[in-house]
Write a structure and sequence with these properties.
Blueprint: E1 4-10, H1 14-27, E2 33-36, E3 46-50, H2 57-65, E4 69-75, E5 83-84, E6 87-90, H3 96-107, H4 140-147, E7 154-159, E8 162-168, E9 173-176, E10 189-193, H5 195-201, E11 206-209, H6 210-219, E12 234-237, H7 249-259, E13 263-264, H8 265-272, H9 276-288, E14 292-294, H10 306-328
Helix pairs in contact: 1-3, 7-8, 8-9
Length: about 325
């Protein structure tokens, strides 16, 4: 029997994660070393995954690639500690069922080749609540489409580093950990949550308006993939975001005013004298959050008054020439 076991745990809160790790270590022989690994590990001996994430594309693909022994973790106090089929019920303190299952399903099935050590040792700590999701099939735009579909009810947002937030799509509210700074990246994904899981998740969490929270997070997330937008497109803002009181707020308000009328993106960029990146990013964020839509040219209402601009420039020139003539005594 080998004496190093690679174990991955996916989809638990930090408190539940620590308890499960402790119970597993107590259930294994003292001369066995445990490596807590993520889902990118080439060889996983045991996977424990929160039942709500079991059918997610990343988990299912992993199970088809590797012949992994696994348990689905189900939170059910009345059955705590029992294993029924492939389900382990938690939280629990009695490790008898887990101890027997590990010896029958895991230790007897794997050959160990790494050197023996005399004491139980955790070689690699779990670095996140929810490890890397392999090849997520949903794009960022698809994830946001699910977020803004009211019939979806409760949705859990997560990425390679763990659970990010719980969203109620019907009331457009979101719950996050207090004082937690969140940024989205290319591994952003979602899964559905039951009402019971939602009630367990929202305890001791701060609640926010969904669109206000998303606008703040998306604008702070440099690694997220935004929709493609070009300067020659026309866009109309239909729902105004709530802008943070920071250095960007003035530019955001100006752009929102222009686009609320329906405007060509390049025209707004020129009239406000802003960079391509600033204006395109504003529109891309608004599109992703479904705050507006692209429109046809005949729907554009915002027009730059070129005659007024030219008149202003001529008045400035006349004023300059007048001052110069007066100074020269002409």
């Amino acid at each position: 029997m080998k004496n190093v076991l690679n174990i991955a745990v996916f989809g638990l809160s930090l408190n539940s994660l620590e308890q499960i790790k402790e119970q597993i270590l107590l259930s294994l022989p003292e001369n066995l070393n445990v490596r807590w690994v993520n889902l990118a590990e080439q060889k996983i001996d045991l996977l424990l995954v929160n039942d709500v994430f079991f059918n997610s594309p990343g988990i299912q693909k992993l199970l088809t690639i590797q012949n992994i022994v696994y348990l689905r973790l189900v939170k059910k106090v009345e059955n705590a500690g029992r294993i029924v089929g492939d389900q382990l019920f938690y939280p629990f303190s009695n490790i008898e069922h887990l101890h027997d299952w590990l010896f029958r399903k895991v230790l007897s099935q794997h050959e160990l080749t790494e050197p023996v050590k005399s004491t139980l040792e955790v070689i690699m700590p779990v670095q996140s609540v929810m490890p890397t999701v392999l090849n997520p099939v949903m794009t960022t735009e698809q994830v946001f489409s699910e977020i803004f579909t009211p019939r979806n009810g409760y949705i859990q947002l997560f990425d390679a580093h763990g659970l990010l937030a719980l969203v109620d799509t019907r009331t457009e509210r979101v719950w996050v950990e207090p004082n937690k700074e969140i940024q989205f990246n290319e591994t952003l994904n979602q899964t559905y949550a039951t009402a019971q899981l939602a009630q367990d998740t929202i305890r001791d969490k701060d609640v926010y308006d969904l669109r206000i929270w998303l606008w703040k997070v998306v604008n702070a997330s440099s690694a997220i993939q935004l929709p493609q937008v070009s300067l020659n497109q026309n866009f109309r803002l239909e729902i105004w975001p709530q802008f943070e009181k920071d250095l960007q707020r003035r530019d955001f308000l100006k752009m929102a005013t222009c686009f609320s009328q329906g405007a060509q993106i390049d025209q707004v960029k020129q009239s406000l004298n802003l960079s391509n990146e600033r204006v395109l990013n504003f529109v891309a964020c608004a599109v992703l959050l479904q705050l507006g839509q692209f429109i046809d040219q005949n729907e554009v209402k915002y027009q730059v008054d070129t005659q007024q601009v030219e008149t202003g420039q001529m008045n400035k020139l006349r004023g300059f020439i007048g001052k110069l003539r007066k100074k020269l005594g002409l």
